[in-house]
Design a protein that fits this description.
This protein is an all-alpha fold and 134 residues long. The chain has six helices and no strands. Helix 4 runs antiparallel to helix 5. The radius of gyration is 16 Å and the shape is globular. 25% of the residues are buried.
Length: 134
Amino acid sequence: MSTFNRSTLVKVLEILDSSHAGEALAAAKLASAMVREAGLSWDDVLAPEIRSHDVQAPAAGRAVSTAAGSGPFGYRRDRELSPHEQFFMVLLSPRTPSEVKRKLRGLEARVLDGEITPQETQDLKFMYQSFVVG
């Protein structure tokens, strides 16, 4: 199970209030993926305290890290993120400069519609690596 960042989920869920339906839908899909990737259910997330589904305690002398192999925002590192997932992570990252976020807003509709060019996909991947993965 990967780590889970509730404050990041809150930021993503705030986008659900967007007047742009595509943006709200992408935020809902990203939130759902964050919960699923963390190995949680929505019941777990909405509980006052998030608890793990692991029923076995780690054996003595054996260190278990739930963060091992976890990526930014609690995503697994063993899969490639979609452009819209990368887009929102770059947009939500506190390390992304404001001028980059402003430029990203111009791409938003095309990213959500899946109409970005291969060069824009590569640029988005570079920004994700630079500002999110670091």
